[in-house]
Design a protein that fits this description.
Strand content: 25-35%
Helix content: 25-40%
Number of strands: 9
Number of helices: 5
């Protein structure tokens, strides 16, 4: 009886998530893409390169063949300025990307091994379908399984 209760609860949670996933899969949205993974700059690194607190974002990984890679940015660069504006956090950078839009060429200033460098990055479009970013020519994602079919065999 206790196992049956757990299975029924699990089924309800699975149904909620399946509904959310179906909702996410339904829409698509285009966003502006620079091709970087972003982290805050660790204080030890910040002190080492003499970077003021609250300025800059660490780029631990640059997407291969993405806009930043094509411009010459490399893993572990520190992004300091985007279009001549100091970069302070992810939300600000995201807003600046969307304001510029795909196709815009933007100067970005980075620190690499303590040396300041400027690159011209041409932003690209990235398509988000539901909760996932996809290539425009990618095949459709598989259908979400029906939780009733999965959990019925356990009852």
């Amino acid at each position: 009886e206790e196992i049956k209760h757990v299975v029924i609860e699990a089924r309800e949670v699975a149904k909620e998530w399946a509904d959310k996933i179906r909702e996410w899969k339904g829409g698509s949205k285009s966003t502006t893409y620079i091709g970087v993974v972003i982290e805050s700059v660790p204080s030890v690194l910040r002190d080492y390169v003499d970077l003021p607190k609250g300025v800059g974002l660490l780029l631990p990984r640059i997407a291969k063949d993405g806009p930043a890679d094509k411009a010459g940015l490399v893993d572990n660069d520190i992004l300091v300025k985007f279009d001549d504006q100091l970069v302070i956090n992810y939300n600000q950078l995201s807003a600046l990307l969307e304001l510029k839009g795909a196709g815009a060429t933007v100067p970005v200033t980075i620190l690499r091994k303590g040396e300041e460098m400027t690159f011209e990055v041409t932003l690209e479009e990235r398509v988000r379908k539901g909760a996932h970013f996809i290539h425009p020519d990618a095949p459709e994602a598989p259908a979400v399984p029906d939780p009733d079919e999965i959990f019925d065999c356990l009852l």
